[in-house]
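<goal> How does this chain fold?
<sample>
Here is the protein in question

***
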Amino acid sequence: MTDRQECIVLNDVKSSFRILHISDIHFSIHTTHEKNQQVISELLRKADFYSPLSQHNGIIAVTGDLVSRIPGETSISDALDLLFRLKQIAPVAYSLGNHEKDLPDSVLQDMLRKCRKAGILVLDNSSVMIQEILFTGLTIPQSVYKNPNGSYFALDKITPDMIVSCIGNCPAHPCVMLAHSPMGFEAYAQWGADVILSGHVHGGVVRIPGGVGVLSPERRFFPRYTKGIYQYGTAFMNVSAGIGKFRINNPPEFVCIDLVPRKS
């Protein structure tokens, strides 16, 4: 697992704030408990190494697909174990991906109930203010990812109106949005997000020379956003290559992002 460190300069932050970004672990029926524990140990080691100096100026953001839609017997308990142990290092904000939304509702709600009981900040079309920063978790309709018949043709597009219908207008700045799919970057920025944290694309699955990702989960070749920092206007988006799933020339990654004030 590789480390990537980024720095984003924002006008509206008064002091530095650290975000540890984790995405797309995909604990599933295909990952054993022993393999899950190896991933957990590595993530805890990295989170501890990059941890903010105090719990008031940092957060761990988990941007969906923590488990796959067919999780298996131990995957959810392993996923919860990871979140609970990460929370001992820094506050944890958890937003949902398309795989969580494909879980049976009773399974998902039980998982989220346990998260909330343990103090995990579940951002399911909701927001929380941490220090001076508004953290918003966006859960978009599943029709953005796949049609009800399982096809990937003529999918719904992410628009500012869709975001408003999910979560309302942007109420404050600076705003960090946890949005699983990066495909709505322009819409997220137009809605008002200053920084967006995404994953979903798994770095393009296969990366070829030049840092180009080949495929998106929607079966689109050479998706526009696959890994790294992107800018649209004054908004920035970090796309994590994620951790789980099949990949070639595309190692799992852990991302540390420092939000810093612009010097006057």
Remarks:
- The CA atoms of residues 16 and 190 lie 25 Å apart.
- Residues 2-261 form a domain with the Purple Acid Phosphatase; chain A, domain 2 fold (CATH 3.60.21.10).
- The first strand starts at residue 2 and ends at 10.
- Helices lie at 33-50, 75-86, 98-102, 105-117, 160-167, 185-191.
